[in-house]
Write a structure and sequence with these properties.
globular, single chain, 34% helix
Length: 127
């Protein structure tokens, strides 16, 4: 049976796996791939004013939470507003291209995964 949620090249397992690190997905990597490869645009390098350390992401549960905190810095938002939404649209696919509705985590280093309480929010807005 064909999975009706998997349409076209963006839903292809190979692409989804290539834009993940084998364990976790990355809407930044996925979104940047769509932006540069599919749309043929070039994302600028991060400005020199963006610090090398991560912004304060305490209390962030999901990758969307972390990126929202990261994008609160106007220097980061300048670039991320161009491509993050493409990556969020692909977040329902896991690192192996399987459909999911919740993020998974390794609590305390335990190899058994459990769903987080927050469902995946794959909404995005092109600006």
């Amino acid at each position: 049976m064909i999975d009706k949620r998997r349409h076209g090249v963006l839903g292809h397992m190979g692409l989804l796996t290539a834009s993940a690190n084998g364990v976790d997905t990355s809407p930044i990597i996925s979104g940047l791939w769509v932006y540069e490869t599919v749309l043929g645009k070039k994302a600028p390098s991060p400005p020199d004013s963006v610090p090398a350390i991560e912004p304060d992401i305490r209390n962030a549960k999901t990758i969307r939470d972390k990126l929202e905190k990261h994008r609160a810095d106007k220097n980061c938002r300048i670039c991320h507003k161009r491509f993050d939404h493409f990556g969020f649209a692909l977040e329902n696919f896991d690192a192996l291209g399987r459909w999911r509705t919740d993020y998974l985590e390794y609590p305390g280093g335990n190899k058994r995964r459990k769903p987080l309480k927050a469902p995946i929010d794959s909404n995005g807005q092109m600006i």
